[in-house]
Amino acid sequence: MSRTIQMTVNGVQQEVTIKPRVTLLEVLRDHLHLTGTKLGCDQEVCGACTVLLDDLPVSSCSVLGLDADGCQVQTIEGLASNGDLHPIQQAFIDKGAFQCAFCTPGMIMAVKALQDQLSDPSEERIRHFLAGNICRCGCHMEILEVVRSLYSA
Ligand code: FES
Ligand code: FES
Question: Which residues have any ligand 2 atom within 6 Å of their CB?
């Protein structure tokens, strides 16, 4: 049986009617057409589907849409403002921290959560925080450079 849920996505109130097994990722991509968030492993392993749910990073492939009812969701589409990239997005470009860019939206949302939560993280904390986001192109060193540059700015 379908149910109607409401959530605020990137500051915009949304209402969707979904079946109980539909994931938050499917709500975003298939119902709201926000395809920046990627489907990788579909098993809560790769982090490609990372979004912020009430300010906490989650693997949206592993969260039911029904469990996001009434929540705030932030996706990669919500970061740029008035045509200007978010500083994290710009830093990824400046440091060349991607190749195919499939992991990049999820990685950027994880870095956003890191910045929101920790004011002066150690290298170890940064690595631990980002451990759930995998870059198959092997850009992890450049991504670490991005994070260091954001904290030293
Ligand atoms: S697609 Fe969700 S963690 Fe990989
Ligand atoms: S840039 Fe290709 S998976 Fe990360």
Answer: 98-104, 135-137, 139
Domains of the chain, residue spans: 3-78, 87-152
In CATH, the architecture of 87-152 is Orthogonal Bundle (1.10)
Query: What tens digit of pLDDT does each residue of 95-132 get?
Result: 999 999 999 999 999 999 999 999 999 999 999 999 99
Q: In this predicted structure, what is the pLDDT of residue 104?
A: 98
The pick from 26, 28, 29, 49 for probing ligand 1's pocket by mutation, whose C-beta has the most ligand atoms within 8 angstroms, reads 49
Q: What is the tens place of the pLDDT at every residue in 41-58? A: 999 999 999 999 999 999
Backbone angles phi, psi at 72, to 5 degrees: -100, 130
How far is Cα 69 from Cα 7, in angstroms, rounded to an integer? 6
